Amino acid sequence: MLFAKPSCLPGAILVLLVALLGLAASPAAAQSRDSVRTLTSGGLSREYILHLPKNAPPEPLPLVIALHGALQPAGMMQRYLDLDAVADREGFIIAYPKGMNLLWNDGRSSIAGFIPLLHKRDDGRFVLDVLEALTAEGLVDPSRAYLMGFSNGGFLTAYVACKYADRFQAYATLMMTVPMDYAESCRPSKPVPILLMNGTYDPIVPAFGRPTPGARLMSADATAALFARLDGCAAPAISSAPHARITRWNDCAPGGAVAYYEVAGGHQPPSQSTDAVDALASVLLGPRRSGLDAPEEIWTFFKRFGGAPPVEIAGRAPASTTSASSALALAPPAPPARPVRAQPATPANAWAGIVPDADGASAPAPTAFAAPEPAPSLTRPIAPGAPLPLQAGFVRAGFVQGTQVAPAPATRLAQVPLPPPSPLRPRAASAQ
């Protein structure tokens, strides 16, 4: 697995570069069914953009709340991510909340270790207020509500997943690794279905973590292993896709699942949109890959959880892309249930992975759900020069032995049959 070298640019400059992400999207006018809504949260007037799918029936629909990155306006995130096209086809609502000063108070003391958060508002409460307001209007079905975020918004998504796990049916983070203290402070009330997507060449949120004081971050591998432990997951299944390796934990406590995408790209989610790639942004932020389409992957994951399946939109066009999640098997058959065990009290550091105590004697009382044996650790760093698998990959994993993680020899994966990369999909025509 290949990692980018830490950038020599000051962290403040790197965060400012996130604003370039929106330049990759065409400066389209708002769609006819988009509106800016206002609500009061924490005594403050807050705004969010609401996107209603075209030809949607007058009944409660699924909701995805999408949180923008630092210094990235919500409308720019909307155009850059291009999740609206999936919403129009699949029939779900999207809310794009606006962070104060274009930042989220995401539970960290600083962003990128350099810029202190400019406010101390309860943005987690604001996210819940958006959900509750749309539920009260009868627009959304709260049993099919999902939360996702990019970069700074991804950190807030993880914070909400830890603190308000029962309010959303599934979560997704793009270009985010959790703070190191989450290994002990994150105690969700139930298993958390979550999709994590990270770029191995990301200069802003490095996949190998960050030791910066005030913003110490786990590696991306350790972040995935943490949520796998919290969900009580057993051994994962590993597959490959163009420019990516996908690790899925599906043998988890009831309701839990973790999907971890290692993308050979930068601080940009992969996209198959024809105008998604901007050359300057790719130079500064790392490449944006087209082998996967982040919105498609996220929705494929989300719709596995929650209430009834999404409504059918009359006359909707068939999907123009094939996601890796649908092309590859979502999960192998689950093995018989394993003996339950309490969660560990003291996980290992971010490099060694999340490993339980040998006898579990010091483990705290289990949370509201019973967790099976933790998954084997996948968090030991890959040897320098080891290639990131594309069509067929390698597994370099450590297996739990007491409190130690012993490296296992590299194991060749069977060739995974993959469909040809889907054609780039044009963006929907914009209202002028």
From TrEMBL:
For the region Disordered, what residue ranges are annotated?
411-432
What Gene3D superfamilies does the record point to? alpha/beta hydrolase (3.40.50.1820)
Signal peptide (UniProt feature, chain positions): 1-30
Is this entry keyworded Transport? no
Q: Which UniProt keywords apply?
A: Carbohydrate metabolism, Hydrolase, Polysaccharide degradation, Secreted, Signal, Xylan degradation
The protein's GO terms of the molecular function aspect are: feruloyl esterase activity
Please state where this protein is localized: Secreted
Source domain of life:
Bacteria
Q: Which InterPro entries match?
A: AB_hydrolase_fold, Esterase_phb, FaeB/C/D
Q: By its UniProt entry, which SUPFAM superfamilies does this protein fall under?
A: alpha/beta-Hydrolases
One GO biological process this protein is involved in is: xylan catabolic process
Q: Name one GO cellular component term.
A: extracellular region
PANTHER family in the record: FERULOYL ESTERASE C-RELATED, PTHR38050
What protein name does the entry list?
A: Polyhydroxybutyrate depolymerase
Write down the species.
Ancylobacter rudongensis
